[in-house]
Amino acid sequence: MVEDHRAVREAILSAVERLGPSFVVTAAAGSLAEARTCLRSTKCDLLILDLHLPDGTGLELIEEHPPGVRILVVSACAERAATDAILAAGAHGYLNKKQLAERFEEAILTVMRGGIFRS
User: Fold this and answer.
1) Where are the alpha helices (DSSP H) in the chain?
2) Residue 78: is its pLDDT beyond 80?
3) What's the DSSP call for residue 45?
4) What is d(CA 117, CA 119) in angstroms, rounded to the nearest whole number?
5) Is domain 6-118 in CATH 2.60.40.1180, yes or no?
6) What angle do CA 46, 50, 51 make, to 5 degrees?
7) In the chain, which end has fewer C-beta atoms inside a 10 angstrom radius, N or C?
């Protein structure tokens, strides 16, 4: 999971924990550099990713992600063109941070089942 704001990172961690024991956060990063290190050293099935990071953008990680890793972008950016670009770059879902509490489980399950999610 990549999120630079501590409060949002903690909210996402809590939301993942509520999904049950089959969902575990294996690494959390607050920057693009930390995320790259985590992706090289940690196996994951899903990358939960913020777009705006202090040292770059989440789009860079979408383009670099390891094969087989599903990507859910969680961001406050709500413009249709931006969400289209996110999905075109290779992400499997987009969840607006304003809907984190209400639609997180739906977003995760849709993406992990092979679907595309957009809020």
Assistant:
1) 6-18, 32-41, 58-64, 80-89, 100-112
2) no
3) S
4) 7
5) no
6) 120
7) C
Q: DSSP readout, 4-33?
A: SSHHHHHHHHHHHHHT-TT------BSSHH
Residue where the block lists tokens 């969902």: 23
Instruction: Decide if pLDDT at 59 tops 80.
Output: yes
Q: How many residues in total does the chain contain?
A: 119
**pTM reported for the whole predicted model:** 0.93
* Residue in the structure block whose two tokens are 């992600």: 65
* Model pLDDT, residue 95: 95
111 contact partners, CB below 8 Å, separation of at least 6: 46, 70, 71, 72, 92, 93, 117
- The answer to whether the CB of 73 falls within 8 A of the CB of 64 is no
